[in-house]
Amino acid sequence: MRRFVITWLISSFILHTSSLIYAATTLPVAYDLTCYRGSDCRRLVVLTDSFGSALKLDGYAFPAVMRAAVTSTSSLATFTSTVNRDAGTAEVWLPAATATTLSGKAGVWEVQMIEPSGRITSTIRGNCIIRP
């Protein structure tokens, strides 16, 4: 079982640090997201092992979506993601143009981790709102 720590960073300030050691068999980390119309909404996920060393993320992907509800099968928006394989980070963001079209909407968002083997794990999930 792979264990790692998830830390959220934004603009060099620690936004949220999970003290939870995330194991692939546990529930996703809860994190509510507020974005603003006309602005990029970016979050940096830092993945480290239990010793604080960056995980090597070769071949990993971190897709993220916003849905109207947990039970919705279609998405309201898809976040863009970029993985820095050597630094152990994944940046997910909702572009400003997309945030503008969703102004005033609320729902849920989810970030998944897709391993090179094809295993998919829901790592982060929470409420999401786009403020006007």
Task: Outline the structure in words.
With 132 residues, this protein is mainly beta. The chain has one domain: Immunoglobulins (Immunoglobulin-like, Sandwich), CATH 2.60.40. The protein contains one helix and ten strands. Strand 1 (3-10) and strand 2 form a beta hairpin. The longest helix is centred in the C-terminal third of the chain and has 6 residues, at 96-101. The radius of gyration is 14 Å and the shape is globular.
CATH homologous superfamily grouping: Immunoglobulins
Per CATH, which architecture? Sandwich
Instruction: State the distance separating the first and last CA atoms.
Output: 42 Å
How many strands? Answer: 10
Give the helix tally.
1
Would you summarize the structure shown here?
By secondary structure, the chain is mainly β. It has 1 helix and 10 strands. It has one domain (3-131): Immunoglobulin-like.
Summary keywords:
mainly beta; about 5% helix; about 130 residues; Immunoglobulin-like
Layout of secondary structure:
Elements: E1 3-10, E2 13-23, E3 29-30, E4 33-36, E5 41-48, E6 64-67, E7 77-84, E8 89-94, H1 96-101, E9 106-114, E10 120-131
Parallel strand pairs: 3-10, 4-10
Antiparallel strand pairs: 1-2, 1-5, 5-8, 6-7, 6-9, 7-8, 9-10
